[in-house]
């Protein structure tokens, strides 16, 4: 297990299932009970169907996706990340639904050669206290 000085997530009632799944190294995304669409992050309303009673349920997803965009961070905006710069963040469209995107660290690091559409899969960083944070790694084969 790795320990870190960076801020750790503080789950609330709405995010607890997400973080519990991450601790088990599973990616679980909220799905609206009304329209059956995934939502990241879930809110008080569903951005797809507009219901104010989405009754989100968290479902395990494959964690497979493709890179849509990326950036290298050279200056940390939070003190806890200062020792980790530079690092590479990727904007990933998950395979389960067109437009379902999440941002995460690419574990291969900032020197990785990327292109739009390259395949990635979820990985998890154990950051202490039984907490894991979703990140991404290049998928075998490297393209979609």
Automatic annotation (TrEMBL):
Domain ChsH2 C-terminal OB-fold: from-to ranges: 60-125
Q: Which SUPFAM superfamilies match?
A: Nucleic acid-binding proteins
ChsH2 rubredoxin-like zinc ribbon domain sequence ranges: 19-53
InterPro entries attached to this UniProt entry: ChsH2_C, ChsH2_Znr, NA-bd_OB-fold, Thioester_dehydratase-like
PANTHER family named in the record: BLR3430 PROTEIN
State what protein this is by name.
OB-fold domain-containing protein
In its UniProt entry, the species of origin is given as Nocardia fusca
């Amino acid at each position: 297990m790795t320990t870190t000085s960076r801020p750790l997530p503080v789950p609330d009632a709405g995010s607890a299932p997400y973080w519990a799944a991450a601790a088990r190294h599973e990616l679980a995304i909220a799905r609206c009970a009304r329209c059956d669409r995934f939502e990241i992050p879930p809110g008080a309303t569903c951005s797809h169907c507009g219901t104010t009673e989405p009754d989100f349920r968290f479902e395990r997803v494959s964690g497979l996706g493709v890179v849509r965009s990326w950036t290298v961070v050279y200056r940390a905006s939070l003190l806890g990340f200062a020792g980790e710069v530079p690092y590479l963040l990727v904007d990933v469209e998950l395979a389960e639904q067109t437009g379902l995107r999440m941002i995460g660290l690419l574990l291969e690091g900032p020197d990785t050669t990327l292109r739009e559409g390259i395949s990635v899969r979820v990985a998890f960083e154990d950051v202490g206290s039984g907490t894991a944070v979703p990140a991404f790694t290049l998928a075998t084969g490297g393209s979609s």
